[in-house]
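Thread amino acids onto this structure.
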């Protein structure tokens, strides 16, 4: 399941992770550190919500 930032629309895709910020591909959102922030706007992990559908990939 993907998670979307409610503030800017960034999508965290567990298949991709967030390599630039130390989150390896294949890391479930639940396993991402609580102090991780959105790479686009700096929102906290708590500002993310599950997105509709698992197949969404950010452009």
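Threaded sequence (59 positions):
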């Amino acid at each position: 399941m993907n998670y979307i930032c409610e503030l800017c629309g960034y999508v965290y895709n567990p298949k991709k992770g967030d390599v630039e910020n130390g989150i390896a591909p294949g890391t479930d959102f639940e396993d991402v550190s609580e102090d991780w922030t959105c790479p686009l706007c700096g929102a906290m992990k708590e500002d993310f919500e599950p997105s509709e559908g698992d197949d969404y990939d950010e452009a």
